[in-house]
Structures are given as structure tokens and as C-alpha cells.
Design a protein that fits this description.
By secondary structure, this protein is of the alpha/beta class. The chain has a domain at 34-230: Ribonuclease Z/Hydroxyacylglutathione hydrolase-like (Metallo-beta-lactamase, Chain A, 4-Layer Sandwich), CATH 3.60.15. The chain has helices spanning 4-32, 75-84, 100-103, 106-109, 119-126, 200-213, 230-252, 257-263, 277-290, and strands spanning 37-40, 45-49, 55-60, 63-67, 92-94, 114-118, 139-141, 144-149, 152-159, 167-172, 177-179, 219-221. The strands form two sheets. A seven-stranded mixed β-sheet has the order 1-2-3-4-5-6-7. Strand 4, helix 2 (75-84) and strand 5 (92-94) form a beta-alpha-beta unit. Helix 6 (200-213) runs antiparallel to helix 7 and helix 7 packs across helix 9 (277-290). The protein is globular. The relative contact order is 0.10. Bound molecules: zinc ion.
Length: 294
């Protein structure tokens, strides 16, 4: 008969191995079936989709440039897609912000190309446990940077304290295309990372600024969701403002979360993505607690 101590030791020995194996199998399965697909946006700019944030691509005489790089297990599939499209190992890798679904393949691509991002992206990646040094940005900036590549001029513009505290948009002036990063979830409630310097008021202010700044016919690569127009971006902004107001008013008049969710029923289709309506309510509530003065 086993003693209690033996049982505990046996349990301690097996539980971590089992948990680790299951999580590895889950991770392998999760990415094994992912297909990286390309969509032409202009003569030289493409969008790649797979799992994680949308990837912007420029391929031409100066070589290959990518904006964001999804999760680490997808690096080889992304590279294979670039080669199929006539590209090469990326010379330049831009990060719109630090989240892992946009920077996971940095260690792979950073071993042969230069990673460029806002100052705070490097700080936040460097603070993560076990983040490979080859995945850190080697060129960082505070406000704005211009890149001359493949006959285009790319304005990389920092948007302060919106989705996080280190976001940028990338504007291809010639091709008339902008990669918005996670300031834009096309057709869905956005994730706003309040714990990493993000704020709802910041997202609203930044989106208003972008809409003022860009040509009305620009094509927009959102952080998540299908290709978009300025009208789609305006709809997203209006939805954020209207739903924020409904949630704030519900909260102030003492409604429960489920009562607030009922008030948002007209926006139910916006809660079908990564951020469902209940998570959106929580984001607005934590923003109210932490960003009152912003
Ligand atoms: Zn993000």
C-alpha cells in the first residue's frame, strides 16, 4: 500500500510532465494546420494572413521588408510564402507593437535582418523571460521614422498610449497603403492593453488623428480582420465611442454586466472575434479605473 507521501511524490512527478506534453501537443496542433496566405494590395505591397496579426510585405529591387511576424512556430511558413512571392529573407522587419502574435517570429527573422520598432517595444520585449536577443529591435525611435525602400517612402508613426504604449502605424506613401497594427480590429471589438500603457481615450484620439491625416482612398491593413477602407475605420471608431458610452452609463447607473451586455445587443456581431462583448465591457471598466485622468 502506498503512503500518502509516495502518492504526493508520484503526483508531483507526473503532473508537470503531463501538463507540459499536453501544452506542446496543443501548440503543435494549433499551428500545424495554419496556412499562410497572400493577398496583393498594390504592385509592391501584399498582406499575409495565417494566425495572429496581419503581416504587411514589400517585395522589390531593394529586397524584402515585413511588418509584424505572427507566432514563432509560423516563421518557416512565413518565409516559404515570401519566397513563393519572389521575396527573400527580410532585410527589414517592422513591429507595430510588442504583442506576441505580432513579434513571435522576431528571433528567427532578426538573426539575418534588422528589426525596427518604437523605443517601448524593445523595452517590453527585453523584459520578457527568455526572449531571444536576436528578436530585439536594433533600431528604435521615439516619434517617427522614414524608410526609403523599393521605390516607396514609408512613414512609421508612433501613436502614443492607445492599444499599448509602443504602437506605430506604417504608411506606404507611394502605394497609398497603411498598416494600422492593433489600433484597428476590422469589424470587431478591439483588444486594448490597459496594463501595458494602453487607453480607450488614447485609441479614440489616435484613430481621429489617422482619419484626418490619410487620403480618403487609402487601403488599410488592420491588425486583425480583412482589408479595410477609411469608411471601415470610421465605423470602428464610431462603434468604440458609442459602446464605451453605453458601458460607462450602465456602470454609473449600477447595471450588472449582463444588463450592460443586453444594452449592447445591437453590437453583438462586433463581439464574435477575439474580444467578445463581455471582455469588451471589462476593458472599458478597467480603463475607467486606471485611465480616468487621461
Ligand atoms: Zn496587440
Amino acid at each position: 500500500m502506498q503512503t500518502v507521501q509516495t502518492l504526493i511524490k508520484t503526483a508531483l512527478f507526473f503532473i508537470p510532465i503531463t501538463a507540459l506534453s499536453i501544452s506542446n501537443i496543443w501548440a503543435a496542433d494549433r499551428f500545424a494546420s495554419v496556412e499562410v496566405k497572400a493577398q496583393m494590395i498594390s504592385d509592391s505591397v501584399l498582406m499575409l494572413t495565417g494566425s495572429g496579426g496581419n503581416i504587411g510585405v514589400s517585395i522589390g529591387p531593394d529586397g524584402t521588408l515585413i511588418i509584424d511576424d505572427q507566432f514563432a512556430p509560423l516563421a518557416e511558413k512565413i518565409q516559404a510564402a515570401l519566397v513563393t512571392l519572389g521575396g527573400d529573407r527580410p532585410r527589414l522587419i517592422l513591429n507595430t507593437h510588442f504583442h506576441g502574435d505580432h513579434t513571435g517570429s522576431n528571433p528567427n527573422f532578426g538573426s539575418s535582418g534588422a528589426i525596427i520598432a518604437h523605443d517601448n517595444v524593445r523595452v517590453r520585449l527585453a523584459n520578457q523571460d527568455n526572449f531571444a536577443p536576436s528578436g530585439l529591435p536594433v533600431i528604435t525611435f521615439a516619434d517617427q521614422l522614414t524608410i526609403h525602400f523599393n521605390g516607396d517612402e514609408l512613414a512609421v508613426i508612433h501613436l502614443p498610449n492607445g492599444h499599448t504604449d509602443g504602437d506605430s502605424v506604417v504608411w506606404f506613401k507611394q502605394a497609398n497603403v497603411m498598416h494600422m497594427g492593433d489600433h484597428f480590429f476590422n469589424g470587431a471589438f478591439p483588444y486594448i492593453d490597459i496594463g501595458s500603457g494602453g487607453s480607450v481615450a488614447g485609441v479614440i484620439r489616435n484613430l481621429e488623428q489617422v482619419i484626418q491625416m490619410v487620403p480618403a482612398d487609402i487601403q488599410i491593413i488592420p491588425g486583425h480582420g480583412p482589408m479595410a477602407s477609411v469608411a471601415d475605420l470610421s465605423t470602428s471608431l464610431a462603434t468604440i465611442k458609442k459602446t464605451q458610452k453605453i458601458i460607462q452609463q450602465g456602470q454609473q447607473s449600477g447595471l450588472s454586466d449582463s444588463e450592460i451586455e443586453a444594452e449592447l445587443s445591437a453590437y453583438a456581431s462586433w463581439g464574435k472575434g477575439f474580444i467578445n462583448t463581455s471582455r469588451w465591457i471589462n476593458i472599458i471598466k478597467s480603463d475607467m479605473e486606471q485611465n480616468v485622468s487621461r
